[in-house]
Amino acid sequence: MVHRPQSPSIFQPLLAMAFMLLGSVSGFSQAGTFTVRGRVTDAGTGEYVLGANVIVAGQSQGASTNIYGFYSLTLPKAPATLTCSFIGYAPSVKNVDGTRDVEWNVELAPQSVAVDAATVVGTAGQNTESTNLGKAEVAIATIQRLPALMGEVDVLKAIQLLPGIQSAGEGNSGFYVRGGGPDQNLMLLDNAAIYNASHLFGFFSVFNADAVKSMSITKGGFPARYGGRLSSIL
Prior knowledge:
Layout: H1 11-31, E1 33-42, E2 53-56, E3 62-64, E4 70-76, E5 80-85, E6 92-96, E7 102-103, E8 106-108, E9 135-138, H2 140-144, H3 155-159, E10 165-167, E11 175-177, E12 185-189, E13 192-194, E14 198-199, E15 204-205, E16 215-218, E17 232-233
Parallel strand pairs: 1-7, 1-8, 12-17
Antiparallel strand pairs: 1-4, 2-3, 2-5, 5-6, 9-16, 10-11, 12-13, 14-15
């Protein structure tokens, strides 16, 4: 049996040249750079400073610290001036010769920033129409349009339709305001107190809607001159 000698593959020299080229490029890149790394902390408390900037003067290269205050920056081998800064701290500067890797741990000292006084001028808007938050007014024209018993409207039954006011019972002109009793409501007719405001066993009030010009009820926060009542002023 005759064995023919195998010819060397053409890919073997090319593969060897590729490995040599990659090795030379890697060695050149490693030989032409150096690394600056370290941590940035607060000089007073020793806590890590997150987001501090380490930049190279005159260049666009730089790095920021992570949550542990660590940073790492790879630069070409050449002298450089590094500046570490953060808002509220005095910057720190370091000169490196660029011949070897450098570990630079920075302790930033707090620094106050003096600024010129600012004058703020504004005009208050009219956002409050009234301080009588518990006061409600009902127009007599509105009351006269409500359904009425025997054709006669009742102002006391009309105010029972307002929020926070509840009827004292079916067919009764008395009313409860926010849980208070009927005797805790002060009724005034032309600033004169009315003590018995109903007749015919409470089915009708003594107020004639045709003789009343305006009506208002205050359900809270009424002045001290209306003392003696806890629920409302009508």
